[in-house]
Amino acid sequence: MDSERRKFLVGAGAATAGAAILSLSSGLLTPVSAQAIVGNSSATSSSSSPESTSPTAKRYAFVIDLDTCNGCQKCTQGCQTEMQCPPTWGGEVGYAGRQAWIQVFDLGNGTFMPVPCQNCQDAPCAKVCPVGATFYSADGINMIDQDRCIGCRYCIVACPYERRFFNWEDPPVYADDANLTYSPTTNTPHRMGVAEKCIWCAHRVGQGDVPACVEA
Questions:
Q1: Domain count, the chain
Q2: CATH number of the domain where residue 39 is located
Q3: Which among 7, 72, 96, 189 is most buried, taking Cβ atoms within 10 Å?
Q4: By residue range, what is the domain housing residue 207?
Q5: How many CB atoms lie within 10 A of CB 120?
Q6: Closest of 128, 214, 141 to residue 184, by C-alpha
Q7: Residue 12 to residue 63: CA distance in whole angstroms
Q8: Is 0.85 topped by the overall pTM?
């Protein structure tokens, strides 16, 4: 199974090439530098009114240069610092004891492949969610609304990239987050009994910045 998964990930990664964000609008692909974002990002959905599970015409793409990646895992570290990823539980694959929302696979022969949420078009995770907790933001980013999530874990089973995690216990709440109002754009404060994943740092993209892993 591990061998087949690796072949699948390698095939999926072959279509990617500098960690950058590209804006796809009306079927046109506009290249940008590794430190830039094209287009203004409108506000993502509030937890009280999530968008439809169908993506809009405006979409972002994640581009990773596999010839440049040396497996340093700075992207994973940057993600965990920015998103305060919860600890791993129940056999989840993690990094430094925390959920690896972007996992770096060692393909051998000095080749590595970072895998964040693939933000699938017509995503299986969104299709199986019985309560609409998995949805697309106005910018076409696949999100999770923890206020709606009932913890059924159908989305975790449906994800072919294993990029979804489940909080089996109460995650630690950091002092800076203790008084925050929950928002799907950050998934903080984290809570028990819900699914989590990479959300492409929607709060940063919404301000015209790059995701934390790109910056790292």
A1: 1
A2: 3.30.70.20
A3: 189
A4: 2-215
A5: 16
A6: 141
A7: 12
A8: no
